[in-house]
Amino acid sequence: MNNSTVRHILDTIGAMYPGAHCELNHNNAFELTIAVLLSAQCTDETVNKVTKDLFQKYKTPQDYVSVPIEELEQDIRRIGLYRNKAKHIHQLCLILIEQYGSEVPEAHDELVKLPGVGRKTANVVVSNAFGVPAIAVDTHVERVSKRLGLAGWKDSVLEVEKKLMKRVPRDEWTLTHHRLIFFGRYHCKAQNPMCQVCPLLDLCREGKKRMKTSVVRKNKD
Question: Where is the HhH-GPD domain (predicted)?
Answer without folding.
Answer: 38-186
